Amino acid sequence: MGQFISDGSQLEETITQAVKNTAITDVHTHLYPPAFGQLMSSGVDDLLNYHYLIAEAFLKNRVEKEKFWGLESAEQAQFIWQRLFVDQRPLSEATRGVVTTLKQLGLNTKNGKLSDFREFFEGKSKTEMVDLSFGLSKVTDVVMTNDPIDEIEAAKWIDDSSGSLTSDRRFHSALRLDPILNDCPNTASKLRARGYEVDSDITCEKSRGETVTELSRFITAWIKRIDPVYLAASLPSSFSYPNQESRTIILDEVILPIARKFNLTVAIMAGTKRQINPDLRLAGDSVASTDISAIEAICRRNPNNRFLVTLLSREDQHRLTVVARKFSNLMIFGCWWFLNTPSLIEEITTIRFELLGTSFIPQHSDARVLEQLIYKWSHSRQIIAKVLTAQYLKLFENDWAITADDVEADVADLLANNFWNFIQRKPR
Ligand code: RAT
Ligand code: ZN
CA 171, CA 428: separation in Å to the nearest integer? Predict the structure, then answer.
């Protein structure tokens, strides 16, 4: 056992250093390693073309959307650079993130030009950028989002006889099941084209048995193919469970039994309101409050399944945290998407510490572009350290003995071990 920490500033410094330096497992991203070819996003143009920034670029430019979508990717990046970084100051979280990223990569942010930034990235290979981004963010493991219905991604997995897609062991797969759960009719026709006899209407009594069998056969084949660390789905704010509808049938008769069979956790990300403005394409999604009794019911009715849960709306966070106290098969993770801003991370993380101690996963990055790991984690680490320090100081004020080992163990649980222990896997 290490030395006891003797004063408040030493405690603060110990926590800050521990949170800054502890290796992170990033439990939900949209990243891919270079072996996935064009699916991998990296570089300054991709950083600028992030859908969080696309939405912001139109706030003062209502008329230009059609023109924007017709541009080449480099021209789109130029447009966003001009609107958000030249015509105005990058004060929002997503724009500030680009500045943090460029700065930490050693680039000149004082009066840097887009052409200089492009030159830097052109001089680096994708593999070098993976090493640099993982190194600067001190992330050791990331979980991808792998959609077996997506034609481009599916083809890559099916063609990968040499195992190159999984050769970079820092990247872990996760089987994303949104199309099956949220768009069954369209997905059914795609699955039929791949040789699975799935009816468009799973509630149809006549074909239900066969549809359940065929959906299970499809998901099982993909589990065997990609060896996911969990099964995942985002769900609309209207998610309700249980009921007579197709989503409950698919969960109860297909996904949850398979998850039990393969000892896989199910990640639920609920509270989306997709495409409130389709003109913005991927940037057109929004948020609404979720019925948390559906989360309560799924945990209660399926005690032999484990659920990683994140909800998108701020107003749902306190109740979800209370629910997590009641079910040991529920692990809360991350401050998702519109919640991934410093003020909300601070509020939500404080609630979680106060109600759950260290039994939660404070953050995931949701990075879509490799280098976003750098800013998303640098910003989040600062807030996590601040909140953890405040909690520890309250103990310290009452003379509770604390060692650096205690702090480091807590931080390692929060940033990596809670995830691996909960899903009952080990990093490769
Ligand atoms: O945060 C995002 O980038 C969103 O567009 C979504 O991808 C969300 O995180 C999701 O996984 O559905
Ligand atoms: Zn995501």
Answer: 9
